């Protein structure tokens, strides 16, 4: 239908973010080692223009909206090992920054068993606005940072931090931590070896997800496609609910990251790379 003003293409959508709302991307950078810490699912924040997407407040606290504990692990690792951290400040329900934006589940209308009314029957203009406003700046910030590091000769390992729900579609998941890889497993293999040395840990290799589930977008684009070593880390979210639990995982993951960097010949001690 046209509106007499040139049709749908001529109608400007209202801005997704109003002046004064938090920035889309949280970029932090301090001198450090080779690790670039990324967190696509750091926040459950929604732009005010989207209200609650038709969801009850309780649903926005659950894993469908974000990865509980992932931002705390990301910031803890950056504090411990230095280097940059880039976090997405808006919920994956607006658009999932770890998906190719053309995929239907990039803006999901059904997450696990929860309908997302505010994501149903979206037109192309609205979808593109979410890509342009939320998705693009996140990946552009990583592009800029990664290219600058490569240009200045800094060794770089891409590390993405996630958490997963203990029960998915009524099935309990046994893993405490999962290492998700791409076609280049040179950093995933030593990470798996380091974590599996702890007999108390159940470590998933491409579990609970793998590239077959289209969860490898960020490591593929920013790691694999640039030839940079990379890994995606998934920690079960009931294990990172308190600050002390997070601190324990930061220590464990930092040790595994340092060991793995050494295994592929990349110096991992803060300061060595600058
Ligand atoms: Zn995630």
UniProtKB/TrEMBL annotation:
According to the lineage, what is the superkingdom?
A: Bacteria
Q: Which InterPro entries match?
A: N-FG_amidohydro, UCP029730
What Pfam families has UniProt attached to this entry? FGase
Record Gene3D superfamilies: Zn-dependent exopeptidases
Q: What is this protein called?
A: N-formylglutamate amidohydrolase
Q: Which organism is it from?
A: Kaistia nematophila
Provide the organism lineage as a comma list: Bacteria, Pseudomonadati, Pseudomonadota, Alphaproteobacteria, Hyphomicrobiales
